Amino acid sequence: MYNEQILIVEDEPAIREMVVMTLEMAGFDSLQATDVSEAHQQVVDHRPALILLDWMLPGDKSGIDFCRMLKSDELLAEIPVIMLTAKSEEDSKVHGLDAGADDYMTKPFSTRELISRIKAVLRRSNALSADKTIEIGKLSLDPKSQRVMASGQIIDVGPTEYRLLAFFMSHPERAYTRTQLLDQVWGGNVYIEDRTIDVHIKRLRKLLRPHDCDKLIQTVRGTGYRFSSVVEAK
């Protein structure tokens, strides 16, 4: 039994009940909310292990709005979010991931895939939430506070770039393909193009450049990217 609480934020009763039953059969406990206000209260009261968040919700705030709100809150940002939506276009998926979502599922989805995704996201989240600060060169990353610093200066890093940097710093000196980075940082079966990685790498380098740390992220020709403090001669 997992006994971890999963918050389901979904306004359609049939889908919500199906997900609750699926989670219970898999050994998870369920919390429920139908809109952003209820969801926020559940998060504050219970701090779930993961949130299944519908894109379209009643009221003036959408699932994307709630996701952004969570990821901008230092105390709540580490709670992983899987977006549930009928939107299947690639730009919608990128939009959701850019808001800080950890994975993305398009309705209708299979219950087996849902549980598989939840377990995968929880594994990645637990791996990135270790208490020990990681230091490479002048760059340090504190998983406990989710704060990135260079020579004592705080670097304002968004949720997606933070997850990418946390993975890199946890796995230095190894080259990863774009597909491997998508799987490790965003999760398997996230159907977005490899160029998404290039966009986030570019953003991350731009954030690190003023601190002279951008060269830690190295392009490996014919493969992808590597995080290394070793600067190779040209």
Summarize the structure.
The chain has 234 residues and is α/β, with parallel strands linked by helices. The chain has helices at residues 13-25, 36-46, 63-71, 90-98, 111-128, 159-170, 178-186, 195-208, and strands spanning 5-9, 29-33, 50-54, 81-85, 103-106, 134-136, 139-142, 147-150, 153-155, 175-177, 217-220, 224-227.
Beta-strand proportion: 15-25%
> How far apart, in Å, are the first and last alpha carbons?
53 Å
Strands of the widest sheet, in order across it, are 2-1-3-4-5
Using the alpha-carbon principal axes, give the shape. globular
pLDDT < 50 runs, ≥5 residues: none
The secondary-structure class comes to: alpha/beta
- Return the average pLDDT rounded to an integer: 86
Radius of gyration: 18 Å
Account of the protein in words:
The structure is a single chain. This protein has helices at 13-25, 36-46, 63-71, 90-98, 111-128, 159-170, 178-186, 195-208, and strands at residues 5-9, 29-33, 50-54, 81-85, 103-106, 134-136, 139-142, 147-150, 153-155, 175-177, 217-220, 224-227. Helix 6 (159-170) crosses helix 8. It has eight helices and twelve strands. The relative contact order is 0.10. With 234 residues, the protein is of the alpha/beta class. The radius of gyration is 18 Å and the shape is globular. Helix content is 41%, strand content 21%. A hairpin with a 2-residue loop joins strand 8 and strand 9. It has a five-stranded parallel beta sheet, with helices on both faces. A four-stranded antiparallel beta sheet has the order 6-7-8-9, with helices on one face.
